[in-house]
Amino acid sequence: MKIWFMRLRYNKVLSFNEVDQTITVQTGLSGPALEKWLNDAKKDGHGQSVGISGIYILPSDPSSAWLGWFGMLPEERRKGYGQEAIALFEQEAKKRGCLYARLFTNRFHNDVAFAFYQSQGYSFEPYTCPDDKGWKRYPIVIFSKSLSDKPLILWNDRNIHFNEQIAKQVYDK
After folding, report:
1. Which of 24, 94, 119, 141 has the least CB density, counted as fewest CB within 10 Å?
2. Is the whole-model pTM more than 0.85?
3. Number of domains in the chain
4. Beta strand pairing status for 22-27 and 49-56?
């Protein structure tokens, strides 16, 4: 089984790297189209998908790598793939010179995810940035972890432009 790494809103495969199990694709894919592509990948002989993950760095904070679109298929959960994906994300973040790993997720009805991230050493804080109103529609928390021997510096409500990220999400109807 493989863990597939894709970036947000991508739709056409440009390359598949068997060594580090990454896919490079073009912009456009999200929602049901993403799920269809992952299911079709199984049929195309690329191996079986178990989940999705991505990495990005905000220009305003090059010391932090952000985990994006992280999740495992329901039938593949509790088999260690999530831990492996987090470890690979953190390894890639360190390669890029990042001191901190961060992610955000839904604040409510997310006990399993909270427990998982905490078990991986992440601390959390609510996100209520006054300059970014997206959190009022979709309350989120930010999880953070130090990737070095330096102490963790919490995010402290710096702007992640969540409202802009919400506006960019386009899902097929």
Report:
1. 119
2. no
3. 1
4. unpaired
